[in-house]
Amino acid sequence: MYEAETEIARSLVAEACALTRRVQNEVVANSDSLIKGDRSPVTLADLTVQAVIGSRLAGRFPGDAFLAEEDSGSLNASPVMAEKVGSLVRTAIPEMNDLEIAAALDRGNHPGGPEGRHWVLDPVDGTKGFLRGQQYAIALALVDGGRVVVGALGCPNLPAPGERGNGSGWIFHAARGSGTWASPVAGGEPAPAKVDAIADSSRAIVCESVEAAHAAHSIQAGIARRLGVTAEPYRIDSQCKYAVLARGEASVYLRLPRDSAYREKVWDHAAGAIVIEEAGGRVSDLDREALDFSKGRRLATGRGIVATNGILHQRVLDACREELNAQP
Ligand code: AMP
Ligand code: MG
């Protein structure tokens, strides 16, 4: 099932890895002259990827809707940005004009929901990591009838299995019922990705956000203590957390909200969730419910994210509840 969709998702993400790499390399090369807090490089990468993927999907699957993070607002606000995005998009699709770029971006305004098919894109997930010259991801998923059925996760800087820090990049793809597959960005046969088989929680490695604003690190440390975890948390930006879990380099991914009113955005989890599930793991919210991708642009019905190798899921959820109950 969804064979054509999976192959196209994988190839679109591969193309986006090459585009974002060019932008990130410039950021790294110019990091001395880059004004602190200047987000224009990530905006450039975001808009370019969303325009290219939005346009290619419209050509290949004209009946499918598109739900993505960005829109043409930041193009209209900055002629300089519009010019740069135009040039970069045209390296991929030479005939695309500025109006078509704006239209491709704004196709991403779909509200989501339970009906029909829509593609979900985070063009550059982990923008803070992108600007630091570290990890980020391009995350594309297909939601059909409110369920994620295909996911492709491009991790342009992910190192070889078992290594940490920057490497030459991996792409993960999954379709419901067909497993998760990993292949190097540089090319090569995909190999199956499998979560680890750790059953003793004290041996688990827990991954979490680098950014303390995105998750409650101190509560997560308390949960790790309850699990008897001895290893330091593996901090890595973006949905690369799902990727390292899917290939067995961590057993748990915790994302406890800093603010209990925060609801996660669907594009931050759709591709990652199917990559984990098809690699043999489990994903839920803090209240044990499966993630519900049918509620719009956010995971409106649940708080937080807990992803595990499956074996540890119940144990980790129990530790989360105990730690939350112990909070003042
Ligand atoms: P990460 O790289 O895992 O730290 O997460 C990056 C994602 O965090 C971005 O794509 C944002 O959509 C998301 N984000 C932004 N603010 C918050 C927040 N307050 N809590 C949780 N996630 C957030
Ligand atoms: Mg994101």
Helix content: 25-40%
* Rg, alpha carbons: 19 Å
Strand content: 15-25%
Give the mean pLDDT.
96
Query: Helix and strand string, N-terminal first?
Result: HHEHHHEHEEEEEEHEHEHEEH
Pairing-aware structural class of the strands and helices? alpha+beta
Detailed description of the structure:
The chain has 328 residues and is of the alpha+beta class. The protein is built from 10 helices and 12 strands. The strands form 2 sheets. The chain has a 7-stranded mixed β-sheet with strand order 1-2-3-4-5-6-7, with helices on both faces. A hairpin with a 6-residue loop joins strand 6 (180-184) and strand 7 (191-193). The longest helix is centred in the N-terminal third of the chain and has 27 residues, at 3-29. Bound molecules: adenosine monophosphate (AMP) and magnesium ion (MG). Magnesium ion (MG) binds next to strand 2. Magnesium ion is lined by residues 122, 125, 268.
State the main characteristics.
328 residues; alpha+beta; 7-stranded mixed sheet; 5-stranded mixed sheet; 18% strand; binds adenosine monophosphate; binds magnesium ion
Quick structural gist:
By secondary structure, this protein is of the alpha+beta class. It is 37% helix and 18% strand.
Question: What's the SSE blueprint?
Answer:
Blueprint lengths: L2 H27 L10 H21 L4 E4 L4 H5 L1 H14 L5 H9 L10 E9 L1 H5 L5 E8 L2 E9 L14 E6 L4 E5 L6 E3 L12 E3 L8 H10 L7 E2 L4 H7 L5 E4 L14 H9 L3 E3 L20 E4 L4 H13 L3
Parallel strand pairs: 1-2, 8-9, 8-10
Antiparallel strand pairs: 2-3, 3-4, 4-5, 5-6, 6-7, 10-12, 11-12
Helix pairs in contact: 1-2, 2-4, 2-5, 7-10, 8-9
The site of magnesium ion has 3 residues, from strand 2.
